[in-house]
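Case study 2.
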Amino acid sequence: MRMYLPFYFLLLQPILGYYQILSTSISRYLPGVKLHRIILRNVGENMVEAVDFSPIDQQKVSTQLSLLLGKNVPAEIRVKQLPFYTGQLFIGNSDTCGNHRIINDTILLAAWSKAPYKPIYLGNEWSTMNLYTRNCQHFSRWYTYHHCK
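Prediction:
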């Protein structure tokens, strides 16, 4: 069986530092509305770190109403370590922050929902969320700009 050089290159390629921004649903009741962003980053051969920016108490009706009305609500940055199911995960080039999707979204989101998270604090800059002016899409752009070099 003959293997081509590009295949060998993928096997030998270092996997640390790759990023992908994954669009997910904003609610389990609206699975087709994929407006939420989760940042994925390789942190080892079979481990992915997932980072997102979400309101605290996002299931509360008062929080959801405040967001819809354009008010600021307390927010947190959540980091989850997701063990991965098969070999190498290639999600982009750390130099270009590419967006190469070779991840099964369904499997990833199942792992996401089961994994415990730790909140991280990056100062007052990301302590509140506003649906229109400071949301997960703004955060994902900021995060990849500052951490994707």
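Helices lie at 5-12, 61-68, 105-114, 136-147.
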